[in-house]
Write a structure and sequence with these properties.
Keywords: Oxidoreductase. The chain is α/β, with parallel strands linked by helices. It has one domain: Rossmann fold. Helix content is about 45%, strand content about 15%. Helix 3 packs parallel to helix 4. The chain is globular. It binds NADP nicotinamide-adenine-dinucleotide phosphate (NAP).
């Protein structure tokens, strides 16, 4: 990770779960991290906590909604102006409301795709544009996808979420090809976790008993497990592009 010391990472969805753990891990490895979320005060609290711990790097909290194109542009412009520009982008922000296809809720489905897919594409476009304009050729884009991007689980209402993560899987390869054709060495990687014990289920409106049973389930990953994988992916040597990693808790039932 030495080559990343002092360089700049943007992490979307840094107020909770995998994004917060990843922002922490990158800062602990000496990066200057821009943590984006709507609940910016939680990212600010983490930033202050890291300072108290004498963290090697630094976390900057910035408010932003990945669904809003102008807000995405502002985050990357702020990063350029204040910190010199983005070198690593972690596209992590996401949500997973249950949406039945027979009682299709267009508003909820649009929210899934606007957040998990279009937000990821907007941040990617702005970050790669910024990297290339500064001649950065070793940048890295990491998508936090899901095991749900590789198959359809037997859970009612997860079709649209799974569809969004299948999109992320395809978009990872599409981006790899575009970067290759543009003759840049900027890399793209995807990480596909199984069940991780985070706030996503509550935030996505799952019934309370289901949220509780997920928190009680001993067969889950912790956010740090995924943050560790992010560190592994971005620390690979320049000639190695880790394309997609599936990480499951040992003994996962589905
Ligand atoms: N937990 C799992 O089992 C699991 C499994 C596979 C993949 N994943 C993926 O991992 C990623 C992170 O999820 P998590 O489990 O860590 O969930 P989480 O604890 O609920 O965190 C989600 C983060 O995304 C942010 N976010 C949501 N919508 C946003 C928006 N419109 N603009 C900006 N930020 C937004 C939230 O921040 P604010 O609400 O403050 O904006 C929060 O920081 C997601 O892409 C998810 O699909 C999770």
């Amino acid at each position: 990770m030495e080559r990343w010391t002092g360089r700049v990472a943007v992490v979307t969805g840094a107020s909770s779960g995998i994004g917060a753990a990843t922002a922490r891990a990158l800062a602990e490895n000496g990066l200057r991290v821009v943590g984006v979320a709507r609940r910016v005060e939680i990212v600010q609290n983490l930033s202050e906590q890291l300072k108290r711990e004498n963290c090697k790097g630094e976390l900057f909290a910035i408010q932003g909604d990945v669904k809003e194109e102008e807000e995405v542009k502002k985050v990357i412009a702020w990063t350029r102006e204040k910190l010199g520009g983005v070198d690593i982008l972690i596209n992590n922000a996401g949500l997973a409301p249950m949406v039945s296809l027979l009682e299709f809720d267009l508003v909820a489905a649009k929210k899934i795709f606007d957040t998990n897919v279009h937000g990821l594409c907007l941040f990617t476009r702005e970050a790669v544009k910024d990297m290339r304009s500064r001649g950065v050729d070793d940048g890295h884009i990491v998508h936090i996808s899901s095991i749900a991007g590789h198959y359809l689980a037997e859970f009612k209402g997860t079709g649209p979420y799974s569809g969004s993560k299948h999109s992320v899987r395809v978009l990872t390869e599409a981006l790899r090809r575009e970067l290759r054709d543009a003759k840049t060495k900027i890399r793209v990687s995807s990480i596909s976790p199984g069940l991780v014990d985070t706030e996503i289920f509550k935030a996505s409106g799952f019934p309370e008993d289901m949220v509780e049973s997920i928190h009680q389930n001993p067969i889950t990953l912790k956010s740090k497990d995924i943050a560790d994988a992010v560190i592994y992916v971005v620390s690979a040597p320049a000639h190695v592009q880790i394309h997609d990693i599936i990480i499951r808790p040992t003994g996962e039932a589905f």
